[in-house]
Amino acid sequence: MITLGELADKLGGVVKGDDNCQISSLSTLTQAGSGQIAFLANAKYRPHLETTQASAVIVSEANAKYCQTNALVLTNPYLGFALVAQLLDTTPKAANDIASTAVISSDATLGKGVSIGANAVIESGVILGENVTIGANCFVGKDAIIKSGSQLWSNVSVYHRVEIGQNCLIQANTVIGSDGFGYANDQGRWVKIPQLGSVIVGDNVEIGACTTIDRGALENTIIEDNVILDNQIQIAHNVKIGSGTAMAACSVIAGSTVIGKNCTIAGLVGINGHINVADGCVFTGMTMVTKSVKEGGVYSSGIPSLPNKEWRKNASRYKHLDEMYKKMAELEKAIAEIKSK
């Protein structure tokens, strides 16, 4: 439990109503009840302020006058929602203490407050910083480093010599440091190229479930500070992702591509290998990035759905585009000649 006044003090907000209102949890405007706090970040939901049963609502100054219950007034209500959620978070740790079934090498180094779940394997030379949490069934390979405050949920695999920074959160079943897709072709026979680099993950990085980050072939794959990666993402070998970049589910980056800082990559985006993407780029859903992008901005290439008959007609015409272009050029030339007479 926390009072509305205490929340205001922690978040730098203003209470309109009862400072002593007791808050136990968060909910939506339509589902909240007594003891819960909701939030309004989108004006289209403003009518719900009149009917909500929440004990309090996080609102902007402009919307506070519409609130029929206690209000916590903040400049950015959505950010306020995130911060209140952190204060009221009841998510358990991935592990508590060190399980008797964990397998820990005798020369691994464990900082103060480390927790390791059941059946986890910590190999030779591993260094775990203070308050690191390793979930059940995780594997941390030889000479890997996980710095203080980072948490791995269950079944995460961290390969040899991978380095993970401070206060990172890695969701279940993610793989960091697996071999990059490197092969040479010998007259139809694929010859594997050992991947000799590693993966370096910065501080305050969050990585979703079932995401894969491959190690570099010679140099390292690098994920800089404050990057957030969603579920089921593929990051190929030698990729570098700049700080503050966000990447949504099922997107992929091919090898040796450099992504700038503070980029936003929506779901199902495919980014080609060996290219550079400038800082501040936004790629909307299903965009295919085939060449370097030199300036920040919003880029799109996904084709919206159409009724099947219409799509089939357009697809059939697509193969005639070059022919149509040549005819259009001839017509423009002929028109120009007529006008010049």
TrEMBL record:
It holds the Pfam family LpxD. CDD domains: LbH_LpxD (cd03352). SUPFAM superfamilies: Trimeric LpxA-like enzymes. Its EC number is 2.3.1.191. It comes from the Bacteria. GO terms for molecular function: UDP-3-O-[(3R)-3-hydroxyacyl]-glucosamine N-acyltransferase activity. Catalyzes the N-acylation of UDP-3-O-acylglucosamine using 3-hydroxyacyl-ACP as the acyl donor. Is involved in the biosynthesis of lipid A, a phosphorylated glycolipid that anchors the lipopolysaccharide to the outer membrane of the cell. This is UDP-3-O-acylglucosamine N-acyltransferase. It comes from Thalassotalea nanhaiensis. The gene is lpxD.
